[in-house]
Amino acid sequence: MATPHNAANMGDIAETILLPGDPLRAKVIAETFLENSVQFNTVRNMFGYTGTYKGKKVSVMGTGMGMPSIGIYSHELIHFYGVKNLIRVGSCGATQENAKLGTILMAQGACTDSNYAHQYQLPGIFSAIADFTLLKTAQEMAEAEGYPYIVGNILSSDVFYTETPEWKQWAKMGVLGIEMESYALYCEAARAGVRALGIFTVSDSIVTGEATTAEERQNKFTNMMKVALETAIRL
Q1: What's the sign of the alpha-carbon dihedral 135, 104, 52, 54?
Q2: Which end of the chain is less crowded, N or C, counting CB atoms within 10 A of the terminal residue's CB?
Q3: Whole-angstrom Cα distance, residue 40 to residue 44?
Q4: Exactly one of 12, 22, 131, 204 is catalytic; which is it?
Q5: Binding-site residues for phosphate
């Protein structure tokens, strides 16, 4: 059944899905790695595809930028389309010197400056964490391939252009990098009892000022994509 944001029918989307923020990255993943891929969504140009990877049905779909956007798409994927495993594949800005450009960061947990969890009316602060099976599998895949990776905490922020250097305070707490979606994804997955994981390629360093280009972020984060796909087929 179609939603206001997704034209797919039930059965069009696999139980395991990769979720890049950039819909063009979804297109690249489908065209590069999936066999017999079929596009199931173009609404708002948020492209979604389903195909097979090494014989297993896998989907990929863009989610846009920010927690409100991924909150909509992940909620619909879970509750309208029966998705059970959601793997965010994104980019992030590093807040630690050892997180070099191209390093894969795996979000064991997600901090936030957002009020996203307010909707659950909890009597405290919710700690948003990854599914351990997804995290362990992704770590094993990266280790086996020899890809540089770090596992730890990230910050999902509501603000891209900040007035103050708040990242330094998060860095003091060991936060590896900043992105804008995973806290909401982890909340949606926890509330529904399904699995979620955020993995990122370091696209820029807030510490050193180094950065990749938009084209590189769209097309060349293949190590992260391979880790996510290899994780997907082992569930």
Answers
A1: negative
A2: N
A3: 13
A4: 204
A5: 21, 25, 44, 88-91
Closest CA relative to residue 28, chosen from 215, 180, 198: 215
Annotated binding site for a purine D-ribonucleoside: 5, 179-181, 203-204
CB atoms within 10 A of CB 80: 16
Is 204 designated active site?
Answer: yes
pTM: 0.97
Take residue 132 and report the two structure tokens written for it.
């351990």
| Separation of CA 60 from chain center | 11
| pLDDT tens digits along 103-151 | 999 999 999 999 999 999 999 999 999 999 999 999 999 999 999 999 9
